[in-house]
Write a structure and sequence with these properties.
Elements (H helix, E strand, L loop, with lengths): L2 E4 L2 E4 L4 E7 L8 E7 L6 E7 L5 E3 L7 E6 L4 E6 L8 E8 L11 E2 L3 E6 L1
Parallel strand pairs: 2-11
Antiparallel strand pairs: 1-3, 3-8, 4-5, 4-9, 5-6, 7-8, 9-10, 9-11
């Protein structure tokens, strides 16, 4: 399984960005794709997750209402729409795949490289 995150960049506070995660074939239709981020000096934090073969979604409280996860199975892609961005959203953003809907990094066994998001004030 390979994942490729893209779409990061520099944006002003209050702006929006849409990240994309393109993945290769997943082991099972029940597999989960999740988004995480890691700011300098901080641990990797869960943001959102979606089931590849269904519609279940799961959000961290810190981004609920601002971030939206979606998928396009035909394009083997999962997206993270990020609105009302704040300087504290600055981080490297990662997508990952795992067998269960979870906020724990240990529950994801495939990871893509990060894409950097910088929000200026």
């Amino acid at each position: 399984v390979q994942l490729q995150a893209s779409g990061g960049g520099l944006v002003q506070a209050g702006g929006s960005l849409k990240l994309a995660c393109e993945y290769s074939e997943l082991p099972f239709s029940s597999y989960i794709i999740g988004w995480f981020r890691q700011a300098p000096g901080k641990e990797r934090a869960f943001l959102a997750a979606i089931r590849w073969g269904g519609s279940s979604t799961y959000y961290a409280d810190s981004v609920k209402g601002r971030f939206t996860i979606s998928r396009d199975n035909a394009k083997h892609s999962v997206y993270l729409q990020m609105n009302s961005l704040k300087p504290e959203d600055t981080a490297a953003y990662y997508c990952a795949a795992g067998p269960r809907l979870s906020s724990l990094t240990d529950d994801y066994n495939y990871w893509g490289q990060g894409t950097l998001v910088t929000v200026s004030s």
